[in-house]
Amino acid sequence: MTVRKNLRLIRRHWWIVLLTLVAGVGIAMAVTVRTPPRYQASVTFFVTTPTPGVTDAYRGNLFLQQRVKSYADLLGSDRLAQSVVAENPLGLTAGQLQRRISTSTEEGSVLLKAEITDTDRNRALKLTQTLATRFVDLVQKVETPTDGKPAPIKLEVVSGPRVSSTPVSPRPERNLPLGGLIGLLVGAALAVLRGAADVRMRDAAALQRVTGSPLLAEIPFESDAKSAPLIVGEAANSARAEAVRKLRTNLRFVDVHEPARVIAVTSALQGEGKTTLACNTAIALAEAGWRVLLIDADLRRPKVADYLGLDGGVGLTDVLVGDVEVGDVVQRWGDKSLLVLPSGAAPPNPSELLGSKAMADLLLALRESADIVVVDTAPLLAVTDGVVVAVQADGALLVAQQGRISRGQVAAAARSLHSVSVRILGCVLNMARVGKADKHHYAAYRVVTPPGAPRPKRAGAGKRVNDRTQQLSRPAR
């Protein structure tokens, strides 16, 4: 996983990072508030040798440095702690005092520093004073020879005892930034892990990889698409409309030697926007001057007639059962060269009806009556209707909604098409999250209507095609 991909995952799950940041700062603040203040008293000793017996400077320095290391251990000894507590009882045991004592030395130095940390400032100072006195006495007693000669080591207090005026802990100026940093690191790790474990379809590259087909378009998400799904009127100049036009171009050149004239539009699940895309693709093709026929072959939940404002009471099912002729129920939509065949009445056996010889004959006849036939089908994983229709088409267009469907579901949908040798023309990532830079590029280059110019008319409802010169060829029975 590359650094760029990790950063993209962190940006996508920014709310996780924000929550952990707030949690880290909150925990650090709570710990800071609940921790009692601790004060530190310190005293510094200087170790020297007053005896003239040690004359060599180098040997004498090594000798004193070794003694300083021993004295650091002696400061935390049981004997010294017991003598301090016995002389100055302040409610602590020898063991508690030992845990409060810390020592430090500098490499190559004969200075020894002792520190006592306590929640009571005065007690810390008194304990340090007593410790300094008892430690000097103890060292002199230990180092004094038994023959009465002067001690070879002299220990002097050169700094302190003194106690800090402000608590050494807790330290809000350190705890809060540290808590925030830990929260950021934890949030970034959780965001990357969540992204790595996320099986939903998140980008176009993953859609191409899963389906094994080319990406023909990324349809950007627009908040007003739900109320105005068609790319007409004001929506004709939107980034979504331009993406559909790109899809139109790619469809015409996806295979120059064997162009698809009957295209089945399908998806893995319901609600991924396949019907809207089928309608908009048909509209875009008609705007380019093609004779387009849009068929609503989703007989279980038809939506084409509702989106286009047409009468869907009579349509495909009535033609397939032989009640009406196809030319009597095909409707022209708006002022474009777009014809629409609604679904008609809901049949009790959609799969059998769509897979019948009548359906095959109808598609064969319609292929000769229009430049391009766009067929809206049912979702592939819900029912078998979509596969039945796709087999009879020249190819299928697979639609997947970004962030809603899993990669496994898309793979299953692609397998269902490949298993019956359906040619997947390409895939479309619908409701894609487009970056601000891409939106800006389109907005900066889109067509601007001059002041006073007539606004484009919104296409209205269609009408039935009754003129015999405009009727589609009837399938042979």
Automatic annotation (TrEMBL):
Composition bias, Polar residues: 468-477
Membrane-related topology note: Multi-pass membrane protein
Keywords: ATP-binding, Cell membrane, Kinase, Membrane, Nucleotide-binding, Transferase, Transmembrane, Transmembrane helix
Top-level taxon of origin: Bacteria
Region annotated Disordered, chain positions: 448-477
Classification via InterPro entries: Bact_polysacc_biosynth/exp (IPR050445), CobQ/CobB/MinD/ParA_Nub-bd_dom (IPR002586), LPS_length_determ_N (IPR003856), P-loop_NTPase (IPR027417), Wzc-like_C (IPR005702)
Cellular location(s): Cell membrane
All copies of domain Polysaccharide chain length determinant N-terminal, residue ranges: 7-87
Molecular function as annotated in GO: ATP binding; protein tyrosine kinase activity
Cross-referenced CDD domains: BY-kinase
Transferase in keyword set: yes
PANTHER family from the UniProt entry: FERRIC ENTEROBACTIN TRANSPORT PROTEIN FEPE (PTHR32309:SF13), TYROSINE-PROTEIN KINASE (PTHR32309)
Protein family (similarity comment): Belongs to the CpsC/CapA family.
The protein, known as: Protein tyrosine kinase
Native organism: Micromonospora globispora
Taxonomic path: Bacteria, Bacillati, Actinomycetota, Actinomycetes, Micromonosporales
